[in-house]
Amino acid sequence: MPRMIPENLDDITNSDELRVAELLRDILADDVIVFHGRHLLMQSKSIGLMPAEVDFIIVDPRQGVLVVEVKGGEVRYNTESKKWMHVDKNGNQSPLSSRDPYDQANSNMHNINRLLDVHIPNFKRKYRCGYAIALPYSRFEGPLPPNMNASTLIDARACTQDAMANALNTAFSAWKAEVTVLSDAEIATIIDTITPVYTVKRDLYAQFGLYEDTIHVLTEEQTLIYQDLLDSQNKAAIAGVAGSGKTLLAKAKALSEAQKGKRVLFLCYNKALAEWLNSSVKIGEIENGYLHIDNYHHFVAQLCRDNGRAWPHNDENLWHEYAPNQLYDIAFNLMSGQDKFDTIIVDEGQDFHPNWWASLAPLFRGNEDKQCYYVFYDPNQNIYQGQVVLPAGLTQPYPLRVNCRNTKRISDYCAQLLGIDMRTKKFAPEGIDPIYHQTTSLSQALNRAQQLAMTMIAEEQRLHKNQVAILCIGVPAKQMNAVAAQHGFTGDHKQWRNNEGVLVCAAGAFKGLESDLVIVVDIDSRKTPELISKRYVAFSRAKFELHVVTLN
Asked: What is the pTM assigned to this prediction?
């Protein structure tokens, strides 16, 4: 039995073509290939691209290639009009809706010849390629017109088990007396040419762009809803899950307050987050007021330098006691009311030490009832403090439970990691599940992460370097910095934002930020609360795709 492509004849809906296919299947040898219903798109010099469909292509290693065009039902050829006619059950004749089958078969023969000649040198000159017409339910009588030959006509008398093989041999022989046998390699080339195996791969750059448009709309909707809520409150605590838009909402509130002519202080924990927030505020966005964005550490250190205070770098109590005490003293005794703030907004509040809240109090100016104080936090991202403590006098926390940054698959995965309620918007992109890569050593894990990153920014996927970040959990600083120093990578957040390299940093240093694609190198297999929180932070930074490289 020959190899039928496609294999399942039940998929052939045309009964006339099915009849021919069954005959070919039953009478041809095992090394023969039969293609059915092949669609071609050929280039014509005069009219450009031309679509064509070939009913059957028979590839016989010993005889060559034969194109077979099938015409079903009862058909007749009118020699005066030179038209093929279809005859219905009442004997009424009407022109065939398709082209003259001989012209069609001839055209397809040349199409196949040209196609194969590209992939098999000198195919047209070396190998036999012809055509035949099959009329499984019609019998041709009378003289044949000049463009037809009895050798290439397989009518109802030949469409039988006994006669079909001889009819095909006659049709093959009509085209070329000498035959060059097709080799196995040439047969394989013909198969690959007529039915090529191809892959339609994801284009991450295009896909992420589509995701970004959707996420942007969802985030804007959520920001507008909660901004209205905060406008009615002078003081509020906002507890949000990862990806719920806390930072964007905090920034929007800061800009809104500053645009009212107020002096606004926006503090966070992470230095890189403060840098990004500063870079995201457009020149001229604030006309009347004042907005100062900083991370707590730099803000206090700068105030101490400006006021001549000593800075004990090696003091183990520097940030828990000395720094907050210095800030309180400077704000209370040295800062003028003009330099203080009407509004203080804190992001990453879960990471603020309890003593820090007290140090911020004298930074306010004016009566307490006119002060505006907003704290945004996620208790599940607490990776620095033992317990989340918030300043007194805020409202009961407003919950932000809807994730509008990550795909549904990443959001669900992060929620399962902690066993928390994290919802997604109805129209959020579905995305794919996080992809795990197991390795056997630290060096292998880092190499794998680098390879993944380079693959993503290569021409095939087209991602920019500032769309990919490698976040490390448990990786020693020396090895991490060695990767960041290599060509195409960086440990500098500003260089990353400027698309100068794929970012490589500790997971905690990326808290509050996000990247389209994140590769997490997690070499610590323990499941302590601290490590689970770090994984939650790292995994939730991935907006659209997450890869996790682990040790076995």
From this structure: 0.72
